[in-house]
Write a structure and sequence with these properties.
The structure holds two protein chains of two kinds.
Chain A: E1 10-14, H1 19-31, E2 34-39, E3 47-48, E4 52-55, H2 58-65, E5 69-72, H3 76-88, E6 93-96, H4 103-116, E7 119-121, E8 127-130, E9 134-137, E10 146-153, H5 157-167, E11 173-178, H6 189-197, E12 204-209, H7 215-226, E13 231-235, H8 249-254, H9 260-269, E14 273-275, H10 278-288
Parallel strand pairs in A: 1-2, 1-5, 2-4, 5-6, 6-7, 10-11, 10-12, 12-13, 13-14
Antiparallel strand pairs in A: 3-4, 8-9, 8-11
Chain B: H1 5-14, E1 22-25, H2 28-38, E2 42-46, E3 59-62, H3 65-75, E4 79-80, E5 83-84, E6 88-92, E7 96-107, E8 112-118, H4 125-131, E9 136-141, H5 149-158, H6 166-182, E10 185-196, E11 201-203, E12 207-210, H7 221-226, H8 232-240, E13 243-246, E14 251-255, H9 258-270, E15 277-280, H10 287-298, E16 305-312, H11 317-330, E17 338-344, H12 347-357, E18 362-364, H13 368-383
Parallel strand pairs in B: 14-16, 16-17, 17-18
Antiparallel strand pairs in B: 1-6, 2-3, 2-6, 4-5, 7-8, 7-10, 8-9, 10-11, 10-12, 13-15
Helix pairs in contact in B: 2-3, 8-10, 10-11, 11-12
Classes of the chains: A alpha/beta, B alpha+beta.
Amino acid sequence: MSILLDDGTRVLVQGITGSEGTFHTKRNLAYGTKVVAGVTPGKGGQKWEDQVPVFDTVQDAVDDTGANASLIFVPAKFAADAILEATDAGIGLVVCITEGIPALDMARVYPYVRAKGATLIGPNCPGLISPGKANMGIIPGEITGPGPIGLVSRSGTLTYQVMYEMFTRGVGQSTCIGIGGDPIVGSNFIDVLGRFAHDPETQAVVVIGEIGGDEEERAASFVKENLDKPVVAYVAGFTAPEGKRMGHAGAIVSGSKGTAQAKAEAFEAMGIRVGRNPTEVAELAIASIR
Amino acid sequence: MDLFEYQAKDLFRRAGIPVPDGKVASSPDAAQKVAAKLGGRVVVKAQVQVGGRGKAGGIKLADTPTQAKEVASQIIGMDIKGHKVRRVLVERAGDIKAEFYASFLLDRTAKAFLGMVSAKGGVDIEEVAATDPEAIARVHVSPLTGIQPYHIRRLLYDGAIPKEAHKGASFLIEKLYDFFVASDASLVEVNPLVLTGDGNVVALDGKVSLDDNASYRQPSYAKLAGEIPLPKQEKIAKEKGLNYVKLDGTIGIIGNGAGLTMSTLDVVSQAGGSPANFLDIGGGANAETMAAGIDLIFSDRKVKSLFVNIFGGITRCDLVAKGILGALDQLPNLKAPIVVRLDGTNATEGRKILSDAARPNINMAPTMLEAAAKAVALTKRGRK
């Protein structure tokens, strides 16, 4: 098994005819992902690359092809609209790769998508891959293979680095999810960890955090209470300079300093081992299942 | 983007949020003119983006325009915690009956807007939050419905704002919320919010952070950004579209992706080195970006070596390798050691391109950790 995405997922791509959409859809198809439709307003009726039907609206695409997941590559100013359109068409899994979406847009999109019961991954994320089954997004498929480790991360290339470190040591993953680094993302660590907790194929989980916010601290408490499988963590940004901080309201809210040190300590306080660098976290994860 | 107080107050004024009369001045003469126009007693405030300016002598009262000129000449040019004062805000001084606190921000944990109000204003609010958390009213506002009258009532009552200030404060809080949303802000904070002797409620200070992602629909952002000084290197980086932050060390860093680049800084520090910068070249690693990045890093005279750490996902390592060579062709005088670690998509091809080129200052390393160790060793050797 895997979480959220498998070889039965029927994917449609919003923005399939754009350069990003075309490039990555080709890679996802080559990986074996079932891409059943594309949506580009005004280009309905065409065939993308002579193989995938294009529709004007997400609703048309869903009605015609039975798509149940959407991958979004549209520009930032149209992205909130695209997410809401997919949600209203009944899509259960929406993955938004687009970066640069105003936070205010996501503040409005988030409660709406949640109320509809859809799962949103991203925005500003690399997407997700269930190795050997399907790939939705921009994670390179060549650097991973099927295996027992689940991975959830706020980062992109850093995630690839950790996946690759495990892969070169002969250990693959059940599902890898980049949740995105924006202030408001559709799924947080806890949402994904909860799914890994119930996935029998996932024997251990790697959490890759970053500085800022208090997601890592909350994930640490959640793991202690809800996961009975090993979890290891990595946090980047120990040497990052303290950002210029305006006002104090942010610190009052989270009660966290948001530093890498504070996050690593929060993980360790909950019994989660923290790797000092990407190599060490990969080694710790592998050791945890042996 | 974090605004200066005078910028925040200009925006407040346009949004109908009551602020004291005043104007920014960048010379003592200009400060004198503003004071003369305002008439009466004025306060001259250093415009710096750092707390504690009052204690540092950056806020002074003046009874006459001549005195305003005098204190402005003391304040302009001052160094407050490493921030040079370039401008002062000259404002009409009023009598203050009470000081409060008010803010709105995007609460990333609750994924909603959060309003906070307290009668304990004018002091360090973090201190209040730590010692007397009950003194701060906190109310979440759904971005879907916007602020409602009951939100404001709760903020006023729970924040223990005195009755005589309710009318003025409730007007100001609603305007502050409207401004927060309309300007795509991630934070608006007023500390203190004051009740004046004549019963008005006025924003005496203003901190505003704006969401750069919204600049495409906020035409005022470009002008505001132009008034905020950046260190020389960061200014060049911005013009070239590079994500660069200057640090104090000796080892230049180029990575792809913010997470991996941050991790690279950490690994270099763990190996005993000190990073000179953060530079994330993102996905587009062509020769021009590389050359601009390398040039920028070595414009910092302290830099002794460079560590290029690339994990090719979408980025292809062969293109990165060509980019590095292209950059070196454009920078023939560059002799400092460069350590390159390439992994992922087309890494074999990329490594071959670099080893075939046989440049004396390019050193290859097979892993991120070995590369970091090599960069540190070469930097130490170079220094001797």
